[in-house]
Amino acid sequence: MPAALRYPVPAARCRAETIADRSRFVCSLARAATAEDAQAFTRELQAEFPEATHNCWAWVAGAPGSTERIGMSDDGEPHGTAGRPMLTALLHSGVGEIVAVVTRYYGGTKLGTGGLSRAYSGAVQAALLELVTVERIDYRQFTVVIGYHQISAVRYLLPSFEATVASELFGESVTLGLRAPHERCPALRAAVANATQGAAIFVDEDGG
């Protein structure tokens, strides 16, 4: 399966502050699994810092480096000097599902287009250094029907595939709902089939 099914995402919000020629840049980062998440966070920061000169933003609502679902805004800064360098920093961060808002307080000295781009990119990079991440894993579930004498053999396999028993039903046979990372499911199914000498009966629940 595609490697993008597993990747780092923000574990919690974080914030970092930088200074460029007396202008103050405050970068706030958060997780954004969807465009709606990103937009809600930008509105929240705009409300938190209404007196700021600018509240520029960028987001990537997908895997690291993916441009399928992205957004950015210069919020009044010269075109291409804020949102674009912020987005570039996010796309090269190795982190997915992330939104950045950089709040600027003007310090009285014009930075020029190059200076602005470096300042906004640098603010995001400074915040990324403070960011704690967790691994996002795309899980799938499938059901397997086995005999009672095969339970131990199947359970023994699970840790090797990062799998768990999500549900279990005991009747004439044993019905287990197994949950595992998407990319591990084919190998897990093969291992279960081998451990039960082909007697296991598989039922897909969500494409696993």
Low-confidence stretches: none
Give the topology string: H per helix, E per strand. EEEHEEHEHEEHEEHE
Average pLDDT, to the nearest integer? 93
Which outline best applies? rod-shaped
Helix segment count? 5
For the largest beta sheet, what order do the strands appear in spatially?
2-3-6-4-5
Strand content: 25-35%
Q: What does this molecule look like?
A:
With 208 residues, this protein is α+β, with helices and mostly antiparallel strands. Helix content is 29%, strand content 35%. A hairpin with a 2-residue loop joins strand 2 and strand 3 (23-31). The longest helix is centred in the middle third of the chain and has 19 residues, at 112-130.
Care to give the gist of this entry?
With 208 residues, this protein is an alpha+beta fold.
Task: Spell out the key features of this protein.
208 residues, alpha+beta, 5-stranded antiparallel β-sheet, 4-stranded antiparallel β-sheet, rod-shaped
Topology:
Blueprint: E1 6-10, E2 14-20, E3 23-31, H1 35-48, E4 54-60, E5 70-73, H2 83-91, E6 98-105, H3 112-130, E7 133-137, E8 139-146, H4 151-157, E9 164-170, E10 174-181, H5 185-195, E11 201-204
Antiparallel strand pairs: 1-7, 2-3, 3-6, 4-5, 4-6, 8-10, 8-11, 9-10
